[in-house]
Amino acid sequence: MAVGKRDIRDVDLTENGPWSDGPPLELFAQIRSECPVHHTSGFAWFPDEAGFWSATTAQDILTVSRDWETYSSELGGILAANVGFPLELARAMFIGMDPPKHDRIKALFQRGFTPRRIAEHEQEIRAITRRVLDRLEERESCDLVTDVAQPVVSRVIGSFMGIDESEDASWARLVNATLGAGDEDLNPGGVRSAIENDIPLVFERCSRLVAERREHPTDDLTSVLVHAEIEGEKLAEHEIVMGFFLLMAAGNDSTKATYCSAMRALMEDPEQKRLLIEDPSLIPAAVEEALRMFPAFAHFRRTATRDTVLNGQEIKAGEKVVMWYVSSGRDESRYEDPDRFDVHRNPEHQAFGAGGRHFCLGTALARLELQILIEETLARYPDIQLDGTPLHVRSFFLNQLKALPVRLR
User: Fold this and answer.
1) Is residue 58 one of the residues assigned to a domain?
2) Pairing mode, if any, of strands 320-324 and 50-55?
3) What's the pLDDT tens digit per position in 149-176?
4) Residue (of 28, 32, 21, 27) closest to 4 by Cα position
5) Structurally, how many domains does the chain consist of?
6) Are 307 and 277 in contact, with CB atoms under 8 Å apart?
7) pLDDT in tens, 353-390
8) Domain contains 1
């Protein structure tokens, strides 16, 4: 989006137009250059929702991420707009808590997500991926989002959570409809439907799983939530449900989003694809490059607990501060030629957060899934190419494709 002579300080980041084909990268580049801590006064489609400050550079996002005492996750929620996701539910997930409670609940899962423990699942994840790709053997074309990425990530996170494979597709539809409520293809009923139908259905279905695990404990992560104790007290029902939903949502969206965008980048640059096919040892570096350029979530939000100053900009207590990972991954002060996909770059990035207490729990799992998905797809279909127009989810939060049509051979 070309802003022209319009003062960048007057630009409304919530207007639908710039987001119609994914994040407005040119607009973010101008904001980083001219007004790196930018203010948006309100929401074009939610008139009662307060505006926010935008942190757009890698350094400013690092500052906000590491100072939880000044920038709270719990005080006002984790999304730029709370519409459709009530604050009490956000606070029931450890991503929406501040220390010390955040640290205690996150620690319940930490041991199950160490790189060593995740590596033990490599053969299982590879087998899941190969089974999904086997279904395409007689086909000339497919959609990488719905035919490959979605069934793989659903089965992987489903196996961790103790969900039967027969329920993978229905859980995926429910998570997509809840998080992607602003996209009419993912949720024709919109935000109202998410509030009135989808979130209650999450509680209903999860409550059944909770009751089963109380009666018959297993070694899956749902049982961990059900039987966990924090200082001698078990989690409340809504904390169990939202902890379950957090893990399901992250497992559903993160790898799916970055894998599809990475494959699109490789198909649009055959030379980069050729490098990976000829030397698969470059794939881990390509995964990091994909995470830099295509973080699965466009933003997370904090709320200032006190008056403060960020990069010269005064911020008042109670005001929102939104960290734009889709901007920091393209920060010119950090990366040379940041809009070019380069499998040799192997960059540091903020796709999993920028350090601090809220650094992503599933980092090792996401990296392993991405590596296996790209490896297996290119090994099976080295001549894969685009076969239509990729479509982005219309969302201020999700940074992902909803359609990626390809020709396999």
Assistant:
1) yes
2) parallel
3) 999 999 999 999 999 999 999 999 999 9
4) 27
5) 1
6) no
7) 998 899 999 999 999 999 999 999 999 999 999 999 99
8) no
